Structures are given as structure tokens and as C-alpha cells.
């Protein structure tokens, strides 16, 4: 945003606008986001044993996360509609914390990045886990949803310097390569 002497009328009045990206060039863009759902022992065990009344929690959350990535521009008002070329959702279990860690990988060839799509995928997957397990435990919570890395675009590549929550020994993953990201046909 410009300094106060060059602000437009709408900026001075708190107006909003969708950024014009038409001068950008198409490039490969990737993003990796992560988050965590802390479940408590009963809900955690129910997911691990696939004993949740509503069905297979992680498969449903995976589908919901992919769908969430595809719907990002409908959920976030000023987010551009992006042609998504690949979305991958992974889950890992943390037995000690009774938690499920979620990681989303997004990829596109386009004018703008896919960071918001990765973050939305993680958020929707996490909320789906919550929804499917809320009858088992009410103290479930979602935490630490954040961007881990992104590639492409004018700003180039970026990788978080903070260690992943509760996994300090793991390195921040590289965004998916063209070969590792599935294509959406």
C-alpha cells in the first residue's frame, strides 16, 4: 500500500479491491500448508481404529480439503479464482498429543499463487475432522494452521524458518515437484 500522501479515495475510506494480476506472467506455483487437530484420547483412538459413526474420517477430510482448495475464491472475497493443477492432502498421527497433523500441497500454472488454496485445504480438512468427531469429544481444537513454503511468482520461493509445531526434528518440506503432484483432469 502507498504512503498516506498517495492513497486513493477508496483506500482512505477503508475500501477494498481485488489486486490486478493481469500484468503477471504464467509460472509454476506451489504451496505447502500445515495444521493440527488435537482430539483427546477417545476421538484419536476412534479415528485410528476407523470406529467413528459418521464413517472414514480421514478419507472424508481429504476429499473435503481438496474441495476446499477448489472453492477458495468463493470463500475468501478478494482471492483470485485459480486454475488448480494439483492438490494433495496428507495426515500423520501424533500418538503422544492425540492429534492429527494435516499437510496440504497445491500446484498451479498461472498468474497468482496457490498459498490461500493450501491454507484453505488444511482448514477445511481440519474442520471436517472436528465435525465428524464432535459427538465423541467436545474439547477438540484446531491449531497452528500456517504456510510452510511456496514457490514461483514475482516474489520467488519462500520457506518458513520456524520449525513445524511439536516436530522440531523434521525439516520444512519442499513444495511438490511437477512429477510428484497429481494432475487434475
Automatic annotation (TrEMBL):
The keyword Lyase applies. It catalyses: (8S)-3',8-cyclo-7,8-dihydroguanosine 5'-triphosphate = cyclic pyranopterin phosphate + diphosphate. Its EC number is 4.6.1.17. The active site is at residue 131. InterPro entries: MoaC, MoaC_bact/euk, MoaC_sf, MoCo_biosynth_MoaA/MoaC, Mopterin_CF_biosynth-C_dom. Residues 159-171 have a biased composition (Basic and acidic residues). Residues 152-185 are annotated as: Disordered. Pathway: Cofactor biosynthesis; molybdopterin biosynthesis. GO terms for molecular function: cyclic pyranopterin monophosphate synthase activity. This is Cyclic pyranopterin monophosphate synthase. It comes from Longibacter salinarum.
Amino acid at each position: 500500500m502507498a504512503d498516506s500522501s498517495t492513497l486513493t479515495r477508496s483506500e482512505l475510506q477503508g475500501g477494498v479491491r481485488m489486486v490486478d494480476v493481469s500484468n503477471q506472467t504464467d509460472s509454476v506455483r506451489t504451496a505447502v500448508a500445515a495444521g493440527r487437530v488435537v482430539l483427546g484420547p477417545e476421538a484419536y483412538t476412534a479415528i485410528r481404529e476407523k470406529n467413528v459413526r459418521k464413517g472414514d474420517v480421514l478419507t472424508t477430510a481429504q476429499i473435503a480439503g481438496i474441495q476446499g482448495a477448489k472453492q477458495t475464491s468463493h470463500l475468501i472475497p478478494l482471492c483470485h479464482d485459480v486454475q488448480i493443477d494439483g492438490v494433495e492432502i496428507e495426515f500423520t498421527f501424533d500418538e503422544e498429543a492425540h492429534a492429527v497433523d494435516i499437510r496440504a500441497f497445491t500446484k498451479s500454472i498461472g498468474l497468482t499463487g496457490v498459498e490461500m488454496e493450501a491454507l484453505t485445504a488444511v482448514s477445511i480438512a481440519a474442520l471436517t475432522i472436528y465435525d465428524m468427531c464432535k459427538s465423541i469429544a467436545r474439547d477438540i481444537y484446531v491449531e497452528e494452521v500456517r504456510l510452510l513454503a511456496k514457490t514461483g511468482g514475482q516474489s520467488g520461493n519462500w520457506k518458513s524458518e520456524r520449525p513445524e509445531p511439536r516436530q522440531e526434528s523434521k525439516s520444512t518440506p519442499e513444495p511438490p515437484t511437477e512429477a510428484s503432484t497429481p494432475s487434475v483432469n
